[in-house]
Amino acid sequence: MTTKKHLQLLAYSFFTWLTFYLIGLPEYYQQWWDWAKVLVVILATLVYFPVSRYTLCKFWDDGRHLANARWLALYLTLPLFVYDYLLLAVYKDLGIGFVVPYWYLTFFYFSFWVQIPYVGWKLQQETR
User: Fold this and answer.
1) Hey, how many other C-beta atoms are within 10 angstroms of the C-beta on 127?
2) pLDDT per position as a tens digit, 46-55
3) pLDDT tens digits for 98-109?
4) Cis omega before residue 26 (within 30°)?
5) Do 46 and 55 form a contact (C-beta atoms < 8 A)?
6) Are 127 and 65 in contact (CB under 8 A)?
7) Domain locations in the chain?
8) What is the distance between the alpha carbons of residues 38 and 128, in angstroms, rounded to a whole number?
9) CB 115 within 8 A of CB 60
10) pTM
């Protein structure tokens, strides 16, 4: 993958994080009721199936959907964790323990590693 693609994915991940952060203001979803957090997790998970498919088809044209899905999963988990860590663990002084009260963020650090490669695998099956 080219340096340009890596930078584009990094920008994509930042704007994804920023969007979720802005929606969750002022306390990054902590002020929401638990049922609302659960609903957002479910809705975001459902939305990311077609978003992942669209991104994989638009961003790459080499037909390596599963490999590209792993790159997408990496860029939608590791940088987002780093941004959350800097905001919550460092700036708000919560330490790594932020992963418990902010469970809805933690969920996506893992779920994208299942969901996005699954979408890539399905795309790969369709192209065969």
Assistant:
1) 9
2) 999 999 999 9
3) 999 999 999 999
4) yes
5) no
6) yes
7) 3-127
8) 37
9) no
10) 0.91
